[in-house]
Amino acid sequence: xxxxxxxxxxxxxxxxxxxxxxxxxxxxxxxxxxxxxxxxxxxxxxxxxxxxxxxxxxxxxxxxxxxxxxxxxxxxxxxxxxxxxxxxxxxxxxxxxxxxxxxxxxxxxxxxxxxxxxxxxxxxxxxxxxxxxxxxxxxxxxxxxxxxxxxxxxxxxxxxxxxxxxxxxxxxxxxxxxxxxxxxxxxxxxxxxxxxxxxxxxxxxxxxxxxxxxxxxxxxxxxxxxxxxxxxxxxxxxxxxxxxxxxxxxxxxxxxxxxxxxxxxxxxxxxxxxxxxxxxxxxxxxxxxxxxxxxxxxxxxxxxxxxxxxxxx
Length: 313
Known about the structure:
The chain is of the alpha/beta class. The chain has helices at about 45-60, 95-100, 110-125, 180-185, 190-195, 200-210, 215-240, 255-265, 285-300; strands at about 10-15, 20-25, 30-35, 65-70, 75, 80-85, 110, 130-135, 140-145, 150, 240-245, 275-280.
């Protein structure tokens, strides 16, 4: 495909449950999609499924096409594979996607949270922004950050694990040995411990909060205030123009955003009156595939830039 301008940009999003593929034209309009269950049974059958779906979508689209991949784990330094993802998706670590898919063009590979952020910057709630923090609130808390148009990667590609910032040095250790982490303060993974098993899910907790239950309000607002403290700290470190909140817990909508804004009124440093915008993520389950496709588009436009670098406007 040397010398040819791509007409189609395809994103492959590898989830623990589903494989999703979306194809876009240069303007960001979706033109084809596909998917199937992942089947992560330790045999590597998911690999054949991923290739089948990508090739099927590619056959529906104008050529030439370029492909990007969003996957769990830590990407390699060159952004062409996942270097570290033990215990899941056998065969993912070290896989060269360009060779596996038998493509002529390089295939950028991103951590799924970074891909979601890129998707929101291209087509979603952060469209056009170059300084953005994304937090995804669900079973755990994920995240990614873009500073001056560059996705932060760090020394070993660990940057962006924003759920593992410490809010309490005397708190219990989370899965990364972080004491009193944001993830443990609001993630579904610790809800039973935080509420004494009074609520089966965060959805149930929020429903009770909306109905005015005092015990629900105490538990929920404590978690939201912890989130606000973390967001205020991230604002000081990264100086974003926008903080995007996604994941299933973001579906609490104003039950989340209204107390979060009030707490940020207490915590956020606002030099000269500057106030960081909050927004709910817009792309939902398509964010990862959208961001992977955008990464492929950006790489095709300028192969000299690091994966996920957005050109200045």
